[in-house]
Design goal:
Blueprint: E1 3-7, E2 13-17, E3 25-27, H1 34-44, H2 59-66, H3 70-73, H4 77-94, H5 104-113, H6 118-137, H7 164-173, H8 179-190, H9 194-197, E4 205-206, E5 209-213, E6 220-224, H10 227-234, H11 254-267, H12 274-287, H13 292-299, H14 304-335, H15 345-356
Antiparallel strand pairs: 1-2, 2-3, 4-5, 5-6
Region (Disordered): 337-357
Protein name: Integrase
Family: Belongs to the 'phage' integrase family.
Length: 357
């Protein structure tokens, strides 16, 4: 209540507190820990605690300056929410210290404090890396102390990938003509992330080729849709600018689509999500012989590191099969029956050995 949002000229959403036609008061991001305190202050008619009240040259002061910067504004809303929470805890623990104490050793200590949850620890490192990069660019720090800090190894394959059996089960549950089926077909054939699936529309398709600039990395992705998928699009109710729409005819939000698709998968007996389809698509392409650069072009990866996760596994599988065939061929030559006697090599040698004894 009384919270309004507005898109800036940079395409970012900002939030204000306003009662009726009264004065607008800028609020922190709703996902940040400071939001509730600021909102409560507005309801009481009191001023919001100032972020600039931090003592100069402290970590809290540096964080406040960074979160007012253009570099911060350009981050995705979900990233800002996540990092706002991380910085809240950094400020609570070390905000009063001078920012000159942000050293490689201090960052490593922060990782150690979070070692029990390595994914969160690595998110902390990413957040601090963004802060330090901005601080170096603006001459607050001489060098970026995060560059020499290594991420923690996470012993996990992340979201589970779909397999052929999953795809078949899903298709049996959701026939052609349903939005659920169209969502799967587009996800499998394009490998798009959830943030791009909800944006894809007919305006992105020309002569059967879908081209879209990805939201996460800004990479231009171009993929060809087979005739069968184009026919499924025509057989499904779509929006004017969005292929995938809700039962009310509205575009999906990212979170809404994720929840909706997860529920659709569970109805087909599959406990997996849309990112698992992206993994399935990448694995299928790699197993079919796609190179790392081809995968980068389709999946919008900025470097070959992620692509090589799939090509390396596919190459090892192909080389393993090839090697096993060589072994099999050699053993066939060794153990095959002799043309004259019908006896294999091993049997002939065994008889010779018995004769000598």
């Amino acid at each position: 209540m009384y919270v309004v949002k507005q898109k800036t000229r940079h395409g970012n959403w900002v939030f204000y507190f306003r009662i009726g036609k009264g004065k607008r008061i800028r609020l922190p991001d709703p996902g940040s820990p400071e939001f509730k305190e600021a909102y409560a202050a507005c309801l009481r008619g009191e001023p919001i605690p100032s972020k600039t009240a931090e003592a100069p040259h402290t970590i809290a002061w540096l964080l406040a300056r960074y979160m007012e910067s253009q570099m911060w504004a350009e981050l995705a809303p979900a990233t800002r929410r996540q990092r706002s929470n991380i910085f809240y805890h950094v400020k609570e623990k070390n905000g009063q210290h001078p920012y000159s104490r942000i050293t490689s050793k201090a960052i490593e200590n922060g990782l150690d404090d979070r070692r029990a949850t390595p994914v969160q620890a690595n998110n902390y490192l990413k957040a601090m890396a963004g802060l330090c990069k901005w601080a170096v660019r603006n001459s607050y720090l001489p060098t970026n102390p995060t560059e020499s800090v290594e991420r923690l190894r996470v012993r996990s394959n992340g979201f589970p990938a779909w397999n052929v059996e999953d795809v078949k089960a899903y298709c049996l549950r959701w026939p052609i003509g349903t939005t659920q089926r169209l969502a799967l077909e587009i996800a499998v054939h394009t490998g798009l992330r959830r943030s791009d699936l909800v944006r894809a529309g007919r305006q992105h398709i020309t002569d059967g080729v879908l081209a879209i600039t990805t939201k996460k990395t800004g990479a231009r992705v171009t993929v060809e849709l087979p005739k069968r998928v184009l026919e499924i699009i025509e057989a499904t109710k779509c929006g004017d600018l969005h292929l995938l729409i809700t039962s009310h005819g509205k575009p999906f939000s990212e979170a809404g689509f994720g929840n909706w698709f997860g529920a659709s998968a569970r109805e087909a007996g599959i406990e997996k999500n849309t990112h698992g389809i992206r993994k399935f698509a990448a694995t299928t392409a790699a197993n079919g012989g796609a190179s790392a650069h081809e995968l980068m072009s389709q999946f919008g990866w900025a470097n070959s590191k992620q692509a090589e996760v799939y090509t390396r596994g596919a190459d090892r599988a192909r080389l393993g099969v090839k090697s096993s065939r060589i072994v099999s061929e050699q053993l066939t030559n060794i153990l095959a029956p002799h043309p004259a006697t019908g006896e294999g090599f091993s049997a002939k040698n065994l008889k010779k050995s018995d004769t000598k004894e």
